[in-house]
Design a protein that fits this description.
alpha/beta; six-stranded mixed β-sheet; 38% helix; M1 Pyruvate Kinase, Domain 3; 481 residues; 3 domains; 18 helices; Pyruvate Kinase, Chain: A, domain 1; TIM Barrel; elongated
């Protein structure tokens, strides 16, 4: 099964998409990676969805990536005696550690770590920023605030603190349990929520012990400031625009998205653009024009993947949402303007032999009649380097490791194929020829470029490039050994 686009689609599973038939239909419609949201569902429910994905993978014969998205620390106010209260601009309101039910003048905020970090003038955003409070005075157990933007405050609404770096670990006790559960289950990617500093990623990596790749969600102003350091220690990035748009002025999110995507591309690490991409399709079979434009923008920027959240997890039209994303991607990628934008934004890297090899592979492929670039990779690094070049022609990712194939399902343009281990380069070339022909990328009269590392089965040894005819008889004549 071959995709006729380069950008990947991540679809979240949930109540609307938990059966074998629906998950199979979503994959056929275009989903490349399935997201398990650890904020919702029991471990038994998530285990069953994981089992079904692997069953679909087996039945369809294509590697499928699975991303487990950890909840992260959730900051919420306590409960109110009346359930809710309306606050008006200019009202005084206190947040404190008192467990007594709240009223129109105060409510519990059961997070002493917030009070420890607050300073006068800091803003507190409640209920996705609909209610805004300015801190006038604070201590270790309370914060006296003025209502800047009024609204309704009710039981256990979320609180965002955009102006300070909170002394909070990115992994709560629930996250630690969920991380171990997901790794034991065999997911391919772990998404880390509310990252603030590179140390958050390093901690998660130590707990994962190499069992899953770590993807950092950028959704805090502190993460934007520390992005370069976070990117260095991450395997991938998610531009999580939900909380980012709450804690920062909403008009600042598009340029931040563009910068984050471009930096991740330059680092050869997959980057997902997420949140509210086709939000209206939760209830409607057709998206708005603005939503289609939003998805297209992420693709024009060169994102590796675009993601559906509630649209596929709880919406009424999950298959239609995936199909819409697939159609938008095909339309954008067939636009000559797309290619000119992608080429213009390419960052030249020539620091290593591997950088030179993959750049040469793209240049050769695009200046001659080459049908595909075939990459052999143990870890996926070679494929990521080739994908960073954003070549015009298909990229076939060949690996003997099913775990690597599943992780590469998130990488731009990678058509993943599991092949036997190779000891000699000739065997690799023959495997590449067979994959290119059997999956419809080339015919017997065509040529492909093969990129690999010798010795085989050693990570980080990309050092060889060959232009090969797709006629196996010619390979045998040139290299009979």
């Amino acid at each position: 099964m071959r995709r006729h686009r380069k950008v990947k689609i991540v679809a979240t599973l949930g109540p609307s998409s938990s059966t074998y038939d629906m998950i199979c239909e979503l994959f056929v419609a275009g989903a490349d990676v399935f997201r398990l949201n650890m904020s919702h569902g029991t471990h038994d429910e998530l285990r069953e969805r994981h089992r079904i994905i692997r069953e679909v993978e087996r039945d369809l014969g294509r590697p499928i990536g699975i991303l487990a998205d950890l909840q992260g620390p959730k900051l919420r106010v306590g409960a109110f005696a009346a359930g809710a209260h309306d606050l008006e601009d200019g009202d005084k309101f206190r947040l404190d550690l008192d467990q007594a039910p709240g009223d129109s003048t105060r409510v519990q905020l059961p997070h002493p770590e917030i009070f420890a970090a607050l300073v006068p003038g800091a803003m507190l955003l409640v209920n996705d920023g609909k209610l805004r409070l300015r801190v006038d005075d604070c201590s270790a157990d309370h914060a006296d605030c003025t209502v800047v933007v009024g609204g309704t405050i009710s039981n256990r609404k979320g609180v965002n603190v955009p102006d300070v770096v909170l002394p909070l670990a990115a992994l709560s006790e629930k996250d630690r349990n969920d991380l171990e559960f997901a790794c034991e289950l065999g997911v391919d990617w772990l998404a880390l929520s509310f990252v603030q500093r590179p140390e958050d990623v390093i901690e998660a990596r130590a707990l994962a012990k190499g069992r899953a790749a770590i993807l950092s969600k950028i959704e805090k102003p502190a993460a934007v400031k520390a992005y370069d350091e976070i990117l260095k220690v991450s395997d991938g990035i998610m531009v999580a625009r939900g909380d980012l748009g709450v804690e920062l002025p909403v008009y600042s999110v598009p340029p931040i998205q563009k910068r984050l995507v471009r930096s991740a591309r330059a680092a050869a690490k997959p980057v997902i653009v997420a949140t509210q991409m086709l939000e209206s399709m939760i209830e409607n079979p057709m998206p708005t024009r603005a939503e289609v434009s939003d998805v297209a923008t992420a693709i024009y920027e060169g994102a590796d993947a675009v993601m559906l959240s509630a649209e596929s997890a709880a919406g009424k039209f999950p298959v239609e949402a995936v199909t819409t994303m697939d159609n938008v991607a095909r339309s954008v990628e067939s636009d000559p303007t797309y290619r000119s934008i992608i080429d213009a934004s390419r960052v030249a890297k020539r620091a290593t032999v591997a950088d030179g090899i993959v750049a040469a592979a793209r240049e050769i492929a695009e200046s001659t009649d080459i049908k595909a670039i075939c990459c052999f990779s143990q870890s996926g690094t070679t494929v990521s380097l080739v994908a960073r070049e954003r070549p015009h022609i298909p990229v076939i990712a060949l690996t003997p490791l099913v775990e690597t194939a599943r992780r590469m399902a998130l990488t731009w343009g990678a058509h993943c194929v599991i092949v036997p281990e190779q000891e000699r380069f000739k065997g690799a070339v023959l495997s590449a020829i067979r994959a290119a022909r059997s999956d419809g990328f080339a015919s017997e009269t065509d040529h492909i470029v093969v990129v690999a590392g010798v010795p085989f089965n050693v990570q980080g040894t990309t050092n060889i490039l060959r232009v090969a005819p797709c006629d196996e008889r010619l390979i045998s004549k040139v290299d009979p050994g």
